[in-house]
Amino acid sequence: MPLPERASPLKMSRRRSLQVGTASAAAMLVASPPTAPPAQAADLPPGPATPAFMVELPVYTAKQPVASLTPASTQLANVGGECGRPAHQRRDDFAPQKLHTLHVREALHSFHPDLPAQKIRGYDGIYPGPTFAARYGEPIVVRIYNDLPRHSVGFGSPEISTHLHNLHCGSESDGFSGDHHSAANYGPTLTGAGGYKGHHYPNFYAGYDQFGATNGDPREA
Fold first, then answer.
1. Average pLDDT, whole number, for the chain?
2. DSSP codes joined into one string, 77-100
3. What is the rounded (10 degree) CA torsion for 88, 130, 106, 152?
4. Is 27 helix (H, G, I), strand (E, B) or coil?
5. Domain of residue 190, CATH code
6. Structural domain tally of the chain?
7. Is 218 contained in some domain?
8. Which of 177, 174, 173, 135 is nearest to 159 (CA)?
9. pLDDT tens per residue, range 120-154
10. Is residue 52 a part of any domain in this protein?
11. 104 pLDDT exceeds 60?
12. Does the residue 44 lie in any domain?
């Protein structure tokens, strides 16, 4: 029994195709019933009123460096669990003299004596975060671990990207918004996921190439 012939594609001029498409779109506009306005989330209720100026701002002792990092800190992203970042720029010129670690984790914190403790995400699990006593001319590496739960519940996803204001450093250590990462996911400016990211902070003034003898232009401090 012969097979039925395959239907040939409909041949239509470009002008006729545009006419049919326009007519179809107009018909859809006429025939479609009015749609309901998009759903919007209800406004959150205001927080409870609290007396002001009851709690002093915590001032922590400066965070101490560590003797070594395991696996070792390297110019290229370490294959031992680090996210896929670009190489540290000018690391040979500004070899790290101190090493630090930070752990981003969930913890409980009360923002006021009249308020209950609630879950936060903080560096080393505290708020505000730890204090670093860094000096110009003393390059450091800070390895920042993402210890947030993989399956986040509530507001925010468990990826992190850490930016340090008023610092001159390579773009790979600047905490660009696309550098967010976790052990399972990574942003568009990285090449792979990882549980930590090494930040190289050279700690020099701006204008280093013009004022090398003074570690940059001191007027830029």
1. 84
2. PPTTTB--PPPPTTTTTT--SEEE
3. -30
4. helix
5. 2.60.40.420
6. 1
7. no
8. 177
9. 999 999 999 999 999 999 999 999 999 999 887 77
10. no
11. yes
12. no
Give the pair of three-digit tokens for residue 208: 């280093």
Q: pTM here? A: 0.77
| Per-residue pLDDT at 30 | 43
Question: What whole-number distance in Å separates Cα of residue 172 and Cα of residue 189?
Answer: 9
Beta bridge partners of 98: 140
Dihedral of alpha carbons 102, 104, 108, 113, sign: positive
Cβ count within 10 A of residue 167: 16
Q: Is residue 43 part of a domain?
A: no
User: Is 50 exceeded by the pLDDT of residue 32?
Assistant: no
- The residue type found at 138 is E
Whole-number Å distance between alpha carbons of 151 and 132: 30
Q: Is the per-residue pLDDT at 96 higher than 90?
A: yes
Structure-token pair, residue 11 = 């041949």
Report which DSSP code applies to 146: E
DSSP state of 137: T
The residue whose two tokens read 């390059």 is 139
Per-residue confidence (pLDDT) for residue 208, from 0 to 100: 86
* Rg (alpha carbons) of the chain, rounded to whole number: 28
Under 8 Å between Cβ of 132 and 63: yes
CA nearest 206: which of 193, 220, 194, 195? Answer: 220
